[in-house]
Design a protein that fits this description.
99 residues, 0% strand, single chain
Length: 99
């Protein structure tokens, strides 16, 4: 059973991460003497968040431990790209939420 499962992956292309690892194999990170590393971080906030942000987070906190609905959040409009994808793949519209 396991061999059949693994056979399904034979035709897949190599992972981009595996290719990158192969390209970087043997390359040691380091800096020339006197060079400073490039800071690629976004930084940390320096100002307090607006009060409406904390209010919204507090009100929504109960839903943070749940997966979003598979069919989207009722009442929110569907983005055009999602509507086009749904139409292009002929997914049926669902009028009632899934149990």
């Amino acid at each position: 059973m396991q061999a059949q499962y693994l056979d399904r992956f034979e035709g897949l292309p190599e992972s981009p991460f595996a290719r990158l690892r192969a390209l970087l194999d043997g390359v040691e990170p380091g800096l020339a003497p006197g060079d400073a590393p490039i800071n690629l971080s976004l930084g940390e906030p320096r100002h307090p968040q607006p009060s409406f942000v904390m209010k919204a987070i507090t009100e929504a906190a109960a839903g943070f431990g749940k997966y979003p609905p598979a069919l989207g959040t009722p009442g929110l409009p569907r983005p055009p790209a999602q509507a086009g994808w749904s139409a292009a793949t002929a997914l049926p519209a669902r009028s009632t939420p899934m149990p």
